Amino acid sequence: MSRTAFRTCPLCEATCGLELTVEDDGAVTRVRGDEQDVFSHGYVCPKALSLPQLHDDPDRLRTPLRRNDAGELEPCTWEQALAAIDAGLRGVQERGGRDAVALYIGNPSVHNLSAPLYGRVLAKALGSRNVYSASTVDQYPKQLASALLFGGGLTVAVPDLDRTDHLLLLGANPLVSNGSLMTAPDVRGRLRAIQRRGGRVVVVDPRRSRTAEVADEHLPIRPGGDALLLAAMAATLFAERLVRPGRLTPHLSGLDELRELLQPFTPELVAPAVGIDAATIRRLARELAAAERAVVYGRMGTTTQTFGTTASWLIDVLNVLTGNLDEPGGAMFPLPATGGANVRGTPGSGRGARVGRWASRVRGLEEVFGELPVACLAEEIETPGEGQVRALITLAGNPVVSTPNSARLDAALASLDFVVSLDLYVTETSRHADVILPAPSPLERSHYDIALYGFAVRNVANYSPPLLPLPAGLQDEWRTLLALTGIVTGQGPAIDVDALDDFVALELVRRDAADPSSPVAGRDPQQLLAALAPRRGPERLLDAMLRTGPYGDHFGAAPGGLSLAALEAAPHGIDLGPLEPRLPAALRTASGTVELAPQRVVADLPRLEQALAEAEAEAGGAERPMVLVGRRDLRSNNSWMHNLPLLAGGPGRCTALLHPDDAARLGLRDGAPVRVRSRVGEIELPAQLDDGIMPGVVSIPHGWGHGVDGVGWRRAAAAGGVNANLLADELLVDPLSGNAVLNGIPVALAPVAVEPVGSAG
Are residues 553 and 640 in the same domain? Predict the structure, then answer.
């Protein structure tokens, strides 16, 4: 006999609904899209189909590992693993203080229910300034710009794809990424719907991506030029009197200052620097202003560059100037069922962005949202002195592959006194661990996209209970995180996890009861906690957040409102409706306005002017160096899906994509090996010629290169490929956010000499 189960896919940001066939023995024999899902309506991508392979992967860890006296990782009990962690971390903290232990949180943590809820508990308990995450090689420039404009790093405006008439995308390839800071299943279908209703899709990207291929227009741009292009478009709107903020006008500050700041960036001056002529720049601005409903959206190509925060700021500046911020069909603010910082507190006012509260010890890079840039982690490990990092905890992260100058970080991790990893595999990073703690497979744990629904193009909620029971030898991830919390706070490895979980849940409801803006303000926290019984763990916290959220039942005060029980009764999810205008209530800036000229950005604009001047000086001079950009693949999500046959099969995808003209100039042939060298390293991989990429640009995908000693995913190790982040320069960062620069890195290319067969003698 078999049964049918429904759940949300946890493998990327699209949050697609799945229909799974499960046999009596627990085998999942079929995966397809859930046609009744309120958000994805049956859409599914290849990643979801690989879920059974991930669950059954023989290389996936199912028991803790610890390093023995011979230096090898061997299976052990949970008691032995936690005792080793307690001894190792306690020794480092006693010698070097709390800052001597660093924490790195990886990308898979966001596709999880336990990690966002209990990972923050661990981070707070650790009390270290050395907290890092994959966010500083990804989206923090966008979140920082949003915080400066709107007052909160999670108050991010997303494209209202289902109602817009004009979509301008920069550095984004959502047909492959499935959306990013834009949770949207079936982006291809949504873009086609824009075109069917007479709208227009324009893509600005150095490469003719899959998204560009279906767009109405593709404009190649020199990597790193997005901020200049956006500034010139905004300057055009001012110069041609096309600025019409509309309803938001009374809620804006800095509009006149903005006009003055952007005057130097005329289309004529910017055009040579970005590779797009002045007439086209003006046309882009006019089309944006003329569309009834339009929106500008940018992603990795705009954030992982030296002007990442400025480009992200200018995207929303354009949305404001054209009257498309917080309007249907424009850039809007989701209202997730679990609420958030822009729901709590006094509507329309707050403290604004708080960043730079401390800085990294060696280079002085500033803290953003409680984290330091991961680009400085290696130097914080290598450099002696007070606060030197001597131990590392990694949560579902592989920074040895995912962060800049990977070779330097790899060597630095080998020098640490102690490393503990919570991971599914022995990876390039966790191979350095003294203890590795396994996590359940996605089919063995519950799921709710507590983070991703904050970026969704439609307000929805969908909960998935565990599909399969936990096998012997594994424990729930939230229990592991709380056990680590007990260890880092000095309570030892035998802490009562249930008691600590009770404390965490009580603190959550106590905070709500003490908040005058909460629907449960003034109520007894103990009674609220009792009303959540018998739930515990992430389900208890999620239920509390849903019930006090904007659609919640308010613990009985709003009958018929949302609760976890309501989601359990709705396996295809609950549709909470399209995005609605939320300003000014969602603002949390000190002024209570959208602050269009935040001082942090204004102070950095001379650097953008300097870049424009340098580009003008280069025009007509020596040939520009080749520059490196990344590349996404639909069958991959960073470095952690290359061990699955369904996703890793087929022709090699780790290639150096470049224009035939560059190949001819450099003596390179299609399919032949090419050496790519940057300031920090070099790699060799096959060349792939394509006239869809801009001359002067080479594109290499991220996340490959698993063939190193000690890695435990055998298929990935045999798949070939190289790690592109061996070329990324850890000294190149966006100075406003500290985010690593992974696009626009200067590189040199040369053919690799291949010895003729039989020449050795």
Answer: no
Share of the chain above pLDDT 70, in %: 98
The token duo for 98 is 């709390």
Pull the structure tokens for residue 591: 């002024």
Q: Is the pTM of this model over 0.70?
A: yes
pLDDT level of residue 761 (50, 70, 90 thresholds): very low
Q: How many C-beta atoms lie closer than 10 Å to residue 150's C-beta? A: 30
Let me know: does 532 contact 540? Beta carbons within 8 Å. yes
Output helix, strand, coil percentages for the chain, rounded to the nearest 5: 35, 15, 45
Cα–Cα distance between 74 and 69 in angstroms, integer?
A: 10
Give residue 36's domain range.
2-49
Q: Is residue 396 part of a domain?
A: no
Residues 639 and 713 in one domain: yes
Domain count for the chain, please give it: 4
Last residue of a domain, one of 313, 338, 363: 338
- Three-state secondary structure call for residue 42: coil
Residue range 103-154, pLDDT digits in tens: 999 998 999 999 999 999 999 999 999 999 999 999 999 999 999 999 999 9
Note whether residue 715 is domain-resident.
Answer: yes
Domain boundary among 338, 372, 395: 338
Calculate the CA 636 to chain-centre distance. 14
Peptide bond into 174 cis (omega under 30): no
CATH number at residue 44: 2.20.25.90
93 lies in some domain: no
Residue 32 lies in a domain: yes
Cα angle: 9, vertex 10, 12; to 5 degrees = 95
614-673 pLDDT, tens digit each? 887 776 555 788 999 999 888 787 777 889 988 888 888 899 999 999 999 999 999 999
